[in-house]
Amino acid sequence: MTTDSPATPTSPVPRTHPLTTRLAALLGPAASLRGRLIRGGLGSLALKLGSTALGFVLAILLARALGPEGYGVYAFVFAIASLLAIPTQLGLPQLVVRETAKAQAAEQWGLMRGLWRWSTLAVWLFSSGVLVLAFAGLWLFGERLDDLTRTTLIAGLLLVPLIALGNLRGAALRGLRHVVAGQLPEHVLRPGLLIALCLIVLLALPAQTLTAATAMGLHALAAAIAFGLGAWFLWRARPSEVASRPTPVYAARAWTASAWPLALTSGLQAINAQVGILLLGLFAASEAVGIYKVAVAVAILIAFGLQAVNLVVAPYFARLHAQGDMARLQRLVTQSARAILALAVPVTLVFVLFGEQFLALAFGPEYAAGHTVLAILALGQLVNAGMGSVGALLNMTGHERDTLRGVAIAAVANLVLGLALIPLYGLEGAAIATAATLIIWNLLLRQAVWHRIQIETLAFSLPFQRVPG
Q1: What is the signed CA dihedral for 157, 426, 418, 61, rounded to 10 degrees?
Q2: What is the mean pLDDT of the chain?
Q3: In angstroms, rounded to a whole number, what is the distance separating the alpha carbons of residues 368 and 374?
Q4: Cα(398)–Cα(109) distance, rounded to whole angstroms?
Q5: CA pair distance 97, 95, nearest whole angstrom
Q6: Which terminal residue of the chain, N or C, has fewer Cβ atoms less than 10 Å from its own Cβ?
Q7: Whether the predicted pLDDT of 9 surpasses 50
Q8: Are the CB atoms for 1 and 237 separated by under 8 Å?
Q9: Domain ranges in the chain?
Q10: Chain segment 201-214, per-residue pLDDT in tens
Q11: Could you please report the per-residue DSSP string of 10-39?
């Protein structure tokens, strides 16, 4: 791991974006720390932008190649695989980010090695259990599914351990502050490889070869390759002290106590993200699921700034809070919130005002019917971005149970609203339920942040209320 030389008063200031420079300055005068934040911030934003672009291209490719019905089957099965991957991860990726950062700061290399070994074994064991149960259920009840859905589901189950282990490897890298390397395999290489594999099939084989099942199988292959590359990245990035194989130190009881609320939080967040697709799959035709999935994929572009910034600042939240430097923590939270909001507002305006034209141009005229859904989801995502890094702050400062409580309330609201609105209003009902859920959990988590650590997460104080509570 490389470090920069300490800056002198006459050292030239690198020409970087002013916002990134301001964020870096909050963390102290050390050039090594400033350099890491600058490189991590710019690299993370560039990588997230590339990841979002790849995801968008992939959505267009699959939506056009499979059609609304085939894309609906693919989206439904991928939602199931994503949910099954949650219990296999046990909330460990967020725990690994936090504890790796703390262990590195304290130079507890045996504890870091123990954490990595313990978390990897746990994910392997739970992945095996989930797959056994899933394949048993498929064997018992699979005849109730049509052939395409059943075959796609078999391919989708292969993704479950690959997603879980890939996220764990990325978390270890981010905890070491290798922010770009931690995101690259899952967020760039996996979708990029999938796009390449799909294009090869479409160009090299006869028409109609790419089905939902074939696309899901290619996704599993791309995930396997990306996981192998991610494991290699971590092997190269591990500190020399860990490479020397110190005796592992385990704090299993403390890790388990922190992991279970993080696991439940991740599970509920996944449910919140996928429940609209799952309920539509039960109450509506596959075409509706495909249209809704496209709208969700487009609306998530609004939150890419929030996701990118969180990946960079989360380890610094943990470090500053552990050091008791609340003034710098508040300044970092405020500046990052302003960056997130500045990125979200223009995209929201485009989708609300020109959503129909955008969907028709990008995905085809059959998807333009989702423009109202897109507008509703866009407004919900704007609130999500505008509230700032509420979940990351709670999780990185040891208050993951507050995150769990807020997300649990929102998940119940999402399910109730979905069951009430989707049978009556279809696509628009699913969008209203999802947007309302985003607003509910962000309000609850913002209140919890202030109650626990007295940090304001908004980019700007409200004119009628300086702080929550």
Answers
A1: 30
A2: 81
A3: 10
A4: 21
A5: 5
A6: C
A7: no
A8: yes
A9: 18-453
A10: 888 876 567 888 99
A11: TPPPP---HHHHHHHHTT-S-HHHHHHHHH
Spatial separation of the C-alpha atoms in residues 453 and 324, rounded to whole Å: 11
CB atoms within 10 A of CB 141: 10
Torsion, Cα 182 268 111 318, to 10 degrees, reads 70
b or e along 262-300 (b: 16 or more beta carbons within 10 Å of the residue's beta carbon)?
Answer: bbbbbbbbbbbbbbbbbbbbebbebbbbbbbbbbbbbbb
Q: Which residues contact 195 (CB under 8 A, 6 or more apart)?
A: 54, 57, 58, 61
Eight-class DSSP state of 460? S
Instruction: Give the closest residue to 82 by CA, choosing from 8, 154, 157, 135.
Output: 157
CA angle 441-444-449, nearest 5°?
Answer: 120
Count Cβ atoms below 10 Å from residue 231 Cβ, excluding itself.
14
Q: Which residue in 233, 262, 325 sits closest to 99, CA to CA? A: 262
Q: Is the pLDDT of residue 40 over 80?
A: no
Residue 29 pLDDT more than 50?
no
208 phi, psi to nearest 5 deg:
70, 10
Beta bridge partners of 462: 465
pLDDT of residue 346: 92
Beta-carbon contacts of 325 under 8 Å, excluding residues fewer than 6 positions away, are none
pLDDT in tens, 64-99: 888 888 888 898 888 888 878 877 877 788 888 888
The phi and psi torsions of 21 (rounded to 5 degrees) equal: -65, -40
> Burial letters for 364-378: b for 16+ Cβ neighbours within 10 Å, e otherwise?
eebbbbbbebbbbbb
Closest to 154 (Cα-Cα) out of 174, 138, 177, 170: 138
DSSP state of 177: T
Predicted TM-score (pTM) of the model is 0.63
pLDDT digits (tens, 9 = 90+) for 246-284: 988 888 888 888 777 777 777 777 777 777 777 887 777
Q: Using alpha carbons only, what angle is made at residue 111 by residues 109 and 116, rounded to the nearest 5 degrees?
A: 95
Residue for token digits 């305006």?
A: 349
